[in-house]
Write a structure and sequence with these properties.
Bound molecules: adenosine-5'-diphosphate, magnesium ion
Helix content: 25-40%
Structural class: alpha/beta
Number of helices: 6
Number of strands: 10
Distance between the termini: 22 Å
Largest sheet: 6 strands, mixed
Length: 225
């Protein structure tokens, strides 16, 4: 179980001479292995928020505290380490490596962690089995459907046993039925592995799978359900 605390978080981007305030005073606590959704229109700050929780970036002002550690006090090496060990990312566009097979894509994060070959093999096979893709393990991404690619991406995110899984619009490039199946897999894994899952979306179909809904508008939380 992992704890995420955001205290009055601001994130500002400088684009030439203009400043974009992507987040404007966001406070949030997630302390259970729950599945929550960040809902908001395009440009409301969802990806920015996930990037801060995922240690891809640090806030301009305020604090992001992951398992008791303030990310603003960490150097790049430390941020990378936290990312590799604790965070699993699932992206809208899957972000698989095209020249690698499904098996090799899922194996990558374990190589980064220095996990020995036999253990890697065991864990990759187990994860591919969990997402129902064992028989496609030698396929490259362009030999898989969109839904299958997203399942590979889910396996890749979860193979490290992350304490936090961040999914950025995971159903946006999938048809309705496939999107539902993807959310069902994510929800089942959340229950089985008891990992915290945060899904950013503006897809209302996602909402039936989450326990908590946080609505974001213009970089601020406007309500929670
Ligand atoms: N790297 C960046 N540089 C400049 N502006 C950015 C950058 N990333 C995001 N933004 C701006 O911050 C705001 C929030 O973006 P984002 O977090 O991507 O929202 P969402 O994911 O909800 O669509 C938008 O106005 C966007 O244009
Ligand atoms: Mg986004």
């Amino acid at each position: 179980m992992s704890s995420i605390v955001l205290k009055d978080v601001y994130k500002e981007y400088i684009l030439g001479k203009t400043k974009v305030e992507a987040l404007r005073g966001v406070s949030l606590e997630v302390s259970k292995s729950e599945i929550i959704s960040i809902i908001g229109p395009s440009g409301s700050g969802k990806t920015t928020l996930l990037n801060l929780i995922g240690c891809i970036d640090v806030p301009t002002k305020g604090e992001v505290i992951i398992d008791g550690e303030n990310t603003s006090t960490m150097d790049d090496d430390k941020l990378t380490l936290i990312r590799r060990h604790k965070i699993g990312f699932i992206f809208q566009t899957f972000n698989l490596i095209p020249v690698l097979t499904a098996y090799e894509n899922v194996e990558m994060p374990l190589i980064s962690l220095g996990v020995p070959k036999e253990e890697r093999h065991r864990r990759v096979i187990e994860m591919l089995d969990k997402v129902g893709l064992l028989e496609f393990k030698d396929h490259k991404p362009d030999e898989l459907s969109g839904g299958q690619r997203q399942r590979v991406a889910i396996a890749r995110a979860l193979v490290i046993n992350p304490s936090i899984v961040l999914a950025d619009e995971p159903t946006a490039n999938l048809d309705g039925e496939t999107g539902k199946k993807i959310m069902e897999i994510i929800k089942t894994l959340n229950e089985e592995i008891s990992t915290t899952v945060i899904v950013a979306t503006h897809d209302p179909r996602v909402l039936q799978y989450v326990e908590r809904k946080i609505y974001l508008e213009d970089g601020r939380i406007v309500r929670e359900e």
